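Problem: given the chain below (108 residues), write out its structure.
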Amino acid sequence: MKFSTLVFAAAVALPFAGAAMAQPAPAAAAAAAPVALVAGEVKKINKETGKMTIKHGPLVSLDMPAMTMVFRVKDPAMLDQVKVGDKINFAVERANGAMTVTQLEAAK
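Solution.
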């Protein structure tokens, strides 16, 4: 193959390679998707460890049935928003190997 043909082919392909790289990654697109909130009831709050115990419905996104379990919270200030016995709606994700509450609001 001649050098000039190779240079021409590279020049034609280069703009398309840049366009392909500019597309958002599937993970980034999924992160922008709305998160489904799950109903629960606060059973225990431990501000020292940054954890709360929640009796919750099924966590469909994590393939978990309804149960009572301990969760870390993404932001310790979340623990100041609730008290034991409160009905809540929350979102949870697996973060660094731990189930973590990433969103929290009072149930309506």
